[in-house]
Design goal:
Blueprint: H1 2-19, H2 30-50, E1 57-60, H3 62-79, H4 84-109, H5 114-135, H6 156-175, H7 180-200, H8 203-222, H9 231-252, H10 264-270, H11 278-296, H12 307-310, H13 336-362, H14 373-393, H15 402-414, E2 423-426, H16 429-460, H17 466-475, H18 480-492, H19 496-509, H20 514-522
Antiparallel strand pairs: 1-2
């Protein structure tokens, strides 16, 4: 019963994380990220309570051990962080992601992976539909105009990331569907995903799909002798055709997007691997500066989530990652792995990279021992998901964000199984109590923090009243944006005592930020 409840809750969470968003535009990034983090932490807490913490005997293999090493090293790194609020948030997301993986892996070991893969497939189609709805005229405060069509993700690149990462799960769910209607719906969904991918103009998304096709072409052909039914090939061809048709229609049908170029899709295709100018050149410079940050802090990095706090000290004045206000334009670098190396050190990054390498290699082992062709194909879906995730994460933040992390780790757990070298570790009652308490504290605390962040945004609303900002600062004391805004509002009214208090709080969160210093000088 516990396994079934956790499985249903994880499946619902995979879909719910797509739609979770707030409408408060003063918080242009967090109004999407925070609600999705609430879903991730809630799912992880349920999994921890129902599956992970029920047994004192832990079964683990090398993948589990390396993932645990990554978490422990990240926790140690968080102790030395400058901004502990950001460190707690980033660490909590990593711990919740790991719990999703371990929970899905335990469910898969008991034969319960079909629902999880289907949930990821449905979530992928839903993400594509929200982007297409915005592209073709749906107007709502839950969408953002800055990087349209981003749907309920607020950014077209984020939708493309979800589409590329979830496409292997969609393919598997379609070709192995138990009923013809399921296969037909999967093909239709593939058309929507193809259209969203093309319309996103996301070079990282396109590269991820291309890399997945290239890497899996031969393994798919080699797996044909394991296919349990003759309809798999026909369904696969129909799905590919639907994806292609969806992509073609996206380029010719009129939409509400205001592209500045007369040939936007062709221009994006031409710039896919251009690193000498534009955003490609900016990424290379950012990676070099972040590497200098990592070299200066090689053991534990600068702390989880603390890249934007420390990056300005390593960047030149003309760095494109720095906006006009002297802060980084984004709260993370343009790569998960650059973030992990600079924030958590080389050991943590190597441990996590090894996890994905072992999962990828394990996807091609032991096919003869699997019960049926569907189990072989789900291994290929795992390999495809990892390839797509690695391709996207090399150029954008994916594992650092709740929605893609939830889908990636669900597939990774559901489609993998422990190696034969799995070992068992029996813990004493006292040790198990400590492990359970620390896990619940981290995940429960992260959930509570995300909820209070959402409450703070709700209190601020559209940002028209000082009282709302003040109450928001009380609910979310770790918010640099809210504390700085309160300081500026009080400074304008001549209430320098209160202004200095909040400016000092903002300055403590980001010591190199110029705005709090200006408020303090003015008072």
């Amino acid at each position: 019963m516990a396994n079934r409840a956790a499985k249903i809750f994880l499946g619902l969470g995979a879909v719910a994380v797509v739609f979770a968003a707030l409408s408060y535009k003063p918080f242009e990034l967090d109004r999407y990220f925070v609600p999705k983090e609430i879903v991730l932490h809630a799912v992880a807490l349920i999994i921890a309570a129902t599956l992970v913490l029920r047994r004192r005997t832990i079964s683990y293999d090398l993948v589990d051990a390396l993932l645990a090493l990554f978490l422990i090293w990240s926790a140690a790194s968080a102790v030395f962080a400058t901004n502990h609020w950001l460190a707690q948030r980033a660490l909590g997301l990593s711990v919740s992601s790991a719990l999703v993986f371990w929970g899905a892996r335990r469910m898969a070991a008991e034969g319960s992976y079909r629902l999880l893969m289907a949930a990821v497939a449905v979530a992928t189609v839903c993400a594509a539909l929200t982007a297409l709805a915005q592209a073709y005229g749906l107007d709502t405060d839950y969408f953002s105009l800055n990087r349209a069509p981003g749907g309920t993700f607020g950014n077209r690149n984020s939708v493309a990331h979800i589409a590329a990462i979830g496409l292997p799960a969609l393919v598997w769910s379609t070709v192995t569907a138990r009923r013809s209607i399921g296969a037909l719906l999967g093909s239709i969904g593939g058309g929507f995903v193809g259209a969203a991918l093309v319309m996103s103009r996301s070079r990282a998304g396109w590269l991820a799909v291309a890399a997945t096709v290239v890497v899996l072409a031969l393994p798919v052909l080699a797996s044909r002798k394991y296919w349990s039914t003759k309809v798999v090939g026909g369904r696969f061809a129909r799905l590919l055709l639907a994806v292609a048709i969806g992509g073609i229609l996206a380029t010719v049908l009129p939409n509400n997007l205001n592209w500045k170029s007369e040939s936007p899709y062709l221009d994006s295709a031409r710039g896919m691997v251009n690193y000498k100018k534009g955003s490609g050149r900016g990424r290379v410079a950012q990676y070099q500066n972040s590497l200098n940050m990592a070299i200066a802090n090689p053991v534990f990095g600068v702390g989880p989530g603390n890249w934007p706090v420390r990056y300005v000290r390593f960047a030149p004045r003309n760095d494109r990652s720095i906006s006009d206000d002297g802060m980084t334009a984004n709260p993370w670098p343009s790569s998960d792995w650059v973030a992990y190396v600079s924030e958590r050190g080389f050991v943590a990054a190597a441990a996590l990279l090894s996890v994905f390498a072992l999962l990828f290699l394990g996807a091609f082992r032991g096919w003869r021992d699997l019960p049926d062709g569907d189990a072989v194909l789900v291994r290929l879906a795992l390999a495809g998901t990892i390839v797509a995730a690695m391709a996207v994460s090399a150029f954008d933040a994916v594992l650092l964000l709740a929605a893609p992390a939830l889908l990636i780790w669900t597939v990774a757990g559901a489609a993998s199984r422990p190696r034969r070298s799995e070992r068992k570790l029996a813990l004493s009652a006292g040790t198990w109590l400590v492990v359970a308490a620390v896990t619940i504290l981290i995940v429960g605390g992260s959930l509570a923090r995300s909820v209070t962040q959402a409450m703070a945004m709700t209190t601020v609303g559209t940002g028209g009243h000082t009282a709302g900002w003040v109450k928001g600062a009380a609910l979310d004391p770790g918010s640099y944006r809210i504390n700085l805004k309160v300081a500026q509002l009080y400074a304008r009214r001549g209430r320098c005592g209160a202004a200095r208090e909040y400016a000092q709080k903002a300055g403590d969160l980001f010591p190199n930020a110029p705005a709090p210093k200006r408020v303090l000088r003015g008072c």
